[in-house]
Amino acid sequence: MNRLATPAAPAASKAAQAAATESDPRWAAVQARDRSVDGTFYFSVKTTGVYCRPSCAARLARPENVAFHATREDAERAGFRPCKRCKPDQPSLQEQYAAKVTAACRIIETAEVLPQLEELAAQVGISAFHFHRIFKSLTGLTPKAYGTAHRAERVRKELARGVAVTDALYDAGYQSNTRFYAESDAVLGMTPRNYQAGGANAEIRFAIGQCTLGAILVAQSQRGICAILLGDDPDTLARDLQDRFPQAMLIGDDPAFAQLVAQVVGFVEAPAKGLDLPLDVRGTAFQQRVWQALRDIPAGETASYAEIANRIGAPKAVRAVAGACAANALAVAIPCHRVVRSDGAISGYRWGVERKRALLDIELALEQQS
Questions:
Q1: What are the tens digits of pLDDT across the range 87-115?
Q2: Cα torsion at 312, 314, 315, 316 (round to 10°)?
Q3: Is the pTM of this model over 0.85?
Q4: Using one digit for the tens of pLDDT, what is the confidence trace for 141-171?
Q5: Do the strands 50-52 and 42-45 form a parallel or antiparallel pair, or are they unpaired?
Q6: 268 by DSSP, 3-state: which?
Q7: Catalytic machinery residues
Q8: Partner residues linked to 304 by β-bridges
Q9: Contact criterion met (CB below 8 Å) for 287 and 232
Q10: Beta pairing, strands 50-52 & 81-82
């Protein structure tokens, strides 16, 4: 009896290992050879003794022979050697591009005058056409847009410190008052002096309604929707808006504006339909890169904080990505609810984890119906 039962033990062990591998969300990335998660983990193959990147083009291993490792060092300590095909011990092409884009960002940030595209490309050793393409794919912005966003960030910081408007704009790299004032509405959403005064004289219309997720506040500046806030208490949402624009003229109880709130509520209930309204998105250059990456995640899908960090060319900035998600004031329109932990767990939502789970459930249900 015992001798007959013994051969079943290794088979059961293999089946258990295969099941564990197949239930791990990282296995799906390996099957898809997903380059976007390269660097976030590695996998080893027991039968060959090597470890690989998720995107390795080699023949797919059997799941019972696969193990996952957080770092290259972990894989090597376990006795595995680097794959000669995907070379996981060397920088990947994506990492090389990310390093060049990061170098270009530092050049932009420290330059007195925004460099021309050809000059930037030459400094990082890539053709202008190729550089423009990879810069936008990794940051979500063109080099020029990144430079503009960075200058805007510097102006906002200087004005917030009480620096004179003229000094602030020249310190940020603007070469003339005329050029800055022509762009000031796009940069600040209002005149520089009104921004420095905490939004004085700026008009922001808002209304509070109800949706399946609780209370919802929608606010609109002259540029577009500037806040979509969720919560349990309408008064708390109103105070949050007031804290954001302490000197602005907040206008509520507008019957016409209530129709726009109904449109936003409809979008929250069915995010896949999209929101055909202009947005007033205000944030640092880094935050805007993260938020653009979030808007590229399709409804019904998720990405990890590490994946977003890789997509914007900053693989070590996972905590900063989480911070940018937390700073988002446009719920659902900038879908930070689609960002989850690397193990797929739902956490870290400024409007509550239960609302995050509910939004993902809504999107998944609508995706299954379509």
A1: 999 887 777 888 888 888 888 877 777 78
A2: -150
A3: no
A4: 788 888 777 776 666 665 555 554 455 444 5
A5: antiparallel
A6: helix
A7: 52, 336
A8: 340
A9: no
A10: parallel
